[in-house]
Amino acid sequence: MPIMDAHNFEFFSRSPEQTRRLGSRIGSLLSPGDLICLSGDLGAGKTTLVQGIASGWESIDPVSSPTFVLINEYHRKSGEILYHMDAYRIETADEAIDLDLDRMLEEGTLLVEWAERIKKALPKNALWINMKWMSDEQRGLLFTAHGSRSQTLMDQFKSRVVGA
């Protein structure tokens, strides 16, 4: 059981649609330079959440899992880029650094699935979302803010979801 404090927020999603709606609310808040780190077992709903994030961010591109290509790019009409990385097949943090994470964060927003695999390569200021499969229709999401920008992002998200 996680300890709840100002840097953590726990939510239980009762359907894939609700997970997408949560993602959409996060996506509507994102700015270039934001880093969202997703962790959780296979089937926890990470890609479903990313679909919602991209929708709320107003991506004009369809979302798919980048497991084999490692990184997908989604675009807005304005030209902004949302990078979607899947670190499942990345063996080391050095391998991740070689993918030029800094450039992606300078140019746009970065979402990383399986982020725990490359944690050493990622900037500290990030919003971590740990997803857990609880039943066929229910997922647990634990949001943890690391750094001032991610804290602001989480607080804005929390306000939109629960009005707190």
Write up what this structure looks like.
By secondary structure, the chain is of the alpha/beta class. The protein has one domain: Rossmann fold (3-Layer(aba) Sandwich), CATH 3.40.50. Helices cover 31% and strands 29% of the residues. The protein contains 5 helices and 7 strands, in the order βαβαββααβββα. A 7-stranded mixed β-sheet has the order 1-7-6-2-5-4-3, sandwiched between helices. Strand 6 and strand 7 form a beta hairpin. The chain starts with 7 loop residues before the first strand and ends with a helix.
Order of helices and strands: EHEHEEHHEEEH
Instruction: Count every helix, treating DSSP H or I runs of 4 or more residues as helices.
Output: 5
Instruction: Summarize model confidence as the mean pLDDT.
Output: 89
CATH superfamily membership: P-loop containing nucleotide triphosphate hydrolases
What CATH architecture do you see?
A: 3-Layer(aba) Sandwich
| First and last CA, distance | 21 Å
